[in-house]
Design goal:
The chain is an alpha/beta fold. The protein has helices at residues 17-28, 39-47, 69-74, 76-89, 94-103, 108-113, 115-118, 151-159, 181-190, 207-217, 236-246, 306-311, 330-340, 364-383, 392-409, 414-433; strands at 138-144, 168-174, 197-201, 222-227, 230-232, 250-260, 288-290, 301-305, 344-356. Among the domains are: 138-362, Alpha-Beta Complex (Spore Coat Polysaccharide Biosynthesis Protein SpsA, Chain A), CATH 3.90.550; 369-437. Strands 1, 2, 3, 4, 5, 6, 7, 8 and 9 form a 9-stranded mixed β-sheet that branches. α9 (181-190) links the parallel β2 (168-174) and β3.
Length: 437
């Protein structure tokens, strides 16, 4: 009931009026005053806080003197083992022991008193084990797409290198293959002889995409590329390493490419067409630094310093073979950009691969596609400043001279392919200057 002075708060003889108003004031502020009889309980809870650890029902209060940090530093691993054993002995069943072992690293004793002191203080009596895995000196990268029948012959020859197996690795990039390439690679990787084979998946189609995926997955500072239809000589990697040691400033080293042709050849084929099948053999008998784009190595047998290739931006995905697009030239583009960075382009005549030419590729349609693609690539090199600029008048003159040679030699001749090359280069340059052309 209200007080005598009309206040809404009751008053009694045991409660002074000032205390009543103080209680009302704290209530208006939104705080609750703690009763006097609850103070001892709150003090006891503060002294003994509840243990939120999930294994609290299995834990007992620790008895005995506290362990100092000096004793932990003296023999850290022995202290960890003793603490773990004593922690597990406190529980009874095997299930509880497993749970205690799993939760041991999360308790405050191990987290704050063991690992914080053990990790920065290695014990000289227990030296850390050194890893037996060494970084290879060179990585042989093979990009493949639906070549499961040819791949074993390429990889078996690549594994039989004179270079010790621990100094090299083979990275096979599976470029969106739909045949049994994965099964072939799994069977070859299970063979414990020669250089270890490692598979890398590249779902995006395109040779440049596959080359970039192999370069990023490789562990060594030197990257060697061969085609999946090329047979490496046993000393290929050893000769490439020798060239890099001879020229420390080399950013790219290429080797000779010999062709292995089928026994029956078409009537139009002559040795002049070997360049359309990646034959590469400059007239040098010793290791030589190259200065002309026309002499730069081909992608069937080329190697790069990984640092130089990364600085050049890897391979341009706009170039390279993709599906029915047979336009290559991504390796020449990368070599030109590496040379502009100040690296040397080196030719090693003793690093040899044999390029196997299937009968299905010995068609005139392949020559036409390759000649047109080469002409477009050379026009691209001029636009990018990788090759000296040629005036359009000179391109017109070369195209006219090639047309006259074609009329004299007839179709399906080397002059015919040269005419296709010059015409594709001229038209590509005209399209870049005249968008409506």
């Amino acid at each position: 009931m209200p007080g005598a002075n009309g206040s809404p708060y009751t008053s009694s003889a045991s409660t002074p009026q000032s205390a009543v108003f103080a209680r009302a004031k704290s209530s208006r502020r939104g705080s609750l005053s703690t009763p006097a009889h609850a103070a001892p309980r709150r003090a006891a809870a503060t002294r003994n806080p509840p243990n939120p650890h999930p294994m609290s029902k299995y834990r007992r209060p620790r008895s005995g003197p506290r362990v100092s940090s000096k004793s932990i530093s003296a023999s850290p691993r022995r202290f960890v083992d003793n603490a773990k054993s004593s922690h597990i002995r406190r529980v009874g069943s095997s299930a509880s022991q497993s749970a205690a072992l799993r939760s041991f690293t999360f308790c405050d004793h191990s987290k704050y008193r063991i690992y914080s002191l053990v990790n920065p203080l290695p014990d000289p009596n227990f030296p850390a084990k050194k890893s037996n895995k060494s970084v290879p000196e060179i990585s042989l990268i093979v990009c493949t797409h639906n070549r499961a029948d040819l791949l074993p012959r390429c990889l078996l020859a690549a594994r039989r290198q004179t270079l010790p197996a621990s100094r090299a690795e083979i990275v096979v990039v599976d470029n969106a293959s739909t045949d049994h390439t994965h099964a072939v690679l799994r069977a070859l990787a299970a063979m414990n002889e020669g250089i270890r084979i490692r598979r890398v998946s590249c779902p995006r189609p395109g040779l440049s995409e596959a080359r970039n995926a192999g370069a990023r997955a490789a562990k060594s500072p030197l990257l060697a590329y061969i085609d999946d239809d090329a047979i490496a000589q046993p000393d290929l990697l050893e000769k490439l390493l020798a060239a890099y040691r001879m020229f420390p400033g080399a950013g790219c080293v290429g080797g000779r490419i010999d062709l292995t042709l089928p026994p029956s050849l078409p009537s139009w084929y002559t040795p002049l067409f070997a360049g359309y099948y990646s034959a590469y053999s400059p007239p040098y008998s010793a290791v030589q630094i190259l200065s002309s784009l026309a002499e730069y190595p081909y992608g069937a047998n080329v190697s790069f310093r990984k640092e130089a290739l990364a600085r050049a931006g890897y391979f341009r995905t706009a170039l390279g073979r993709t599906g029915r697009n047979h336009a290559g030239g991504e390796e020449l583009d990368a070599e030109c950009r590496i040379a502009r960075l100040g690296y040397s382009i080196v030719y090693q005549p003793d690093a040899v691969v044999n390029h196997i030419i299937l009968p299905s590729r010995l068609t005139w349609a392949h020559i036409e596609r390759s000649a047109r693609a080469a002409g477009k690539n050379w026009a691209y090199y001029e636009r990018e400043g990788l090759q000296s600029h040629r005036p359009l008048a000179q391109d017109w003159s070369d195209c006219l001279a090639a047309w006259k040679n074609l009329r004299r030699a007839g179709p399906h001749s080397f002059e015919h392919s040269q005419y296709l090359f010059h015409r594709a280069r001229l038209f590509s340059k005209l399209r870049s200057r005249l968008p409506l052309f």
